[in-house]
Amino acid sequence: MSWVPLSTGAVIGACIGLFMLALVERWVASMRGIMGAYWVQKMDETLIRVVLPVDNVSLHEKPLRLENNNPSSPQPLIRARVNSLAFLQRAHPFILSHEVVRGFTYACQSALGYSLMLAVM
What we know:
Elements: H1 8-51, H2 75-90, H3 96-120
Pfam family, one: Ctr
Subcellular location: Membrane
GO cellular component, one term: membrane
């Protein structure tokens, strides 16, 4: 016996099942993107705290304004720290809990994609 649906009801059920499988695959893809954006945001906040330590200032407050005419202004130091922050943003550190979840969701999305491909073929 083959896996080919023969009756009209079986074909309709297979179409509905494939549609639901496609929805689940797209949901997993969107969750991967949301989790990735969340992890990048948290890592950026952590790097800002490490590279640009500011006393008693929240990251959500207004940005620091620097005076250009003040010779004792810490602008070169802050600019150097911001440049080092831009370098650090390109290579986020390996965090095992993030990478395990990222790998698992990627494997799930790949398995769902291959399942859809095989079902359609």
